[in-house]
Amino acid sequence: MESRLQNLTTENSLLRGEIEKLNKLCQSRPTSDCNLTPTDVSTKTSYADAIAKNSQQTVIVKPKDQEQPINKTKSDILSKINPVESSLNIGKVKNLKEGSVLLGCDDVSKFKQLSETNKLYNDYDIKVVKTLRPRIRIAGISDSVDENNILKYLVKQNEIIFDKDSEYKLLIKFSKIKNNEDRFQVLVEVDVSTYKRALSLGHCLIGLDGCSIYSGIGVSRCFQCNGFNHSSSKCNKELSCPKCSDKHKIQDCKAENLCCGNCFNLKRDGKSQDIDTNHAAWDYNSCHAYNLAVNKIKQDVFGLPI
Ligand SMILES: [Zn+2]
Ligand SMILES: [Zn+2]
Ligand SMILES: [Zn+2]
């Protein structure tokens, strides 16, 4: 559990890098987030604004006739569901393969209901895209706080972040912060609106402790195979050295040249040709495979890539 949070800590630093890229107006700033310094609110607001456009729910409308041109799908949707009068607020449209269209809207259950009433289902399969919940990491809690009261304090003491519609779930209770033995952090899963408010503000009160809030969205890397988003305890793949990608532990590595196994596999499978494999698997700044995984998780959380 602790190593998972340490991974998240590292990944959070990297995501912060992405936030910086998003905010071109913001000057460069330190990426370490373990020292509990308050974070730059303007940067976070900018990030929150960026994701706001992507926080809609998404549906895929797939024609039963897969030879059908995409414009036929679109005109059928338009004839059955009026994007203006339905008040669905269709905000995103993406063309997919086989005549399918992906739509972002405010209320997918209403979209499904209208599809049923207006018989769009006769010629189409309509699938709601399952999105993951964003997570926030709250750091700086002292042991004066009973860990069973954390959620109560969080929600009741921070009403500027948590309102009556907020959804939340504690994923990881107390975990130590690296280099700061007296302070703890927790990981909380929240809905998208609460996530945006939390990151815009950047801090909260837990009991009598002022805490910092960070994005808890990240990609973890397996210590056995270096693959993403699973842990080594659940890994059934072969051992791979993070430094050279051969089948030995890092402690036994004598390689002089670096080779990232994740990027090597992408290249081998023809998914990405012009990518550099000459880095270690932990070098996320250089790793194309890691960046693809980050984009994928953003897509799963916010519906569409940023
Ligand atoms: Zn693995
Ligand atoms: Zn090696
Ligand atoms: Zn790589």
Please characterize this protein's 3D structure.
With 306 residues, this protein is of the alpha+beta class. Helices cover 31% and strands 20% of the residues. The chain has helices at residues 2-22, 41-52, 70-80, 108-117, 150-157, 192-201, 261-268, 288-302; strands spanning 57-63, 92-95, 101-105, 124-129, 135-141, 168-177, 180-190, 203-206, 209-215. It has a 5-stranded antiparallel β-sheet with strand order 6-7-5-9-8. Helix 2 (41-52) packs antiparallel against helix 6 (192-201). One zinc ion binds at residues 241, 243-244, 246, 248, 253, 255. One zinc ion binds at residues 222, 224-225, 227, 230, 232, 235, 237.
Give a topology summary.
Blueprint (H helix, E strand, L loop, with lengths): L1 H21 L18 H12 L4 E7 L6 H11 L11 E4 L5 E5 L2 H10 L6 E6 L5 E7 L8 H8 L10 E10 L2 E11 L1 H10 L1 E4 L2 E7 L45 H8 L19 H15 L4
Antiparallel strand pairs: 1-3, 1-4, 2-3, 5-7, 5-9, 6-7, 8-9
This protein binds zinc ion (3 copies).
One zinc ion binds next to loops.
